[in-house]
Amino acid sequence: MAARERAYAPYSGFRVGAALLADGKIYRGCNIENASYGASNCAERTAAFAAVAAGAGHFQAIAIIGGREERAESYAWPCGICRQVLSEFADEEMQVIAAKSESDYRICSFKSLLPHGFSRETLFESTK
């Protein structure tokens, strides 16, 4: 929730915060919008890139909260691009927590969010 406070969302008003547990440390991220929409970045990727830039290499869990204004009215699950980025450093059992509040949240495994993800194994299998 603290990460969400730093979100920059002047166009959509949809503010998202993420807290990523990687190698035992927590990395925060928020969504950052841009007038050129394609240059925007999601909270999950902001947290992932911060973790990797700090030297982390294995993601254990991520918690995400998002919504318009000050309320999170629905669960904010990672988008497809974020799922793909997370898959590079997560195992299938990584916990994904989508929250509306500290007491209202859902948890699932990363595998259930991206059951047939594109991975390094996919790259190597395609060369055989």
UniProtKB/TrEMBL annotation:
A GO molecular-function descriptor: cytidine deaminase activity
Classification via Gene3D superfamilies: Cytidine Deaminase, domain 2
Entry EC number(s): 3.5.4.5
Residues covered by the CMP/dCMP-type deaminase domain: 1-121
Active-site feature positions: 44
Transmembrane segments: none
Family to which the UniProt record says this protein belongs: Belongs to the cytidine and deoxycytidylate deaminase family.
Name this protein carries in UniProt: Cytidine deaminase
Organism field: Shuttleworthella satelles DSM 14600
Gene name of this polypeptide: cdd
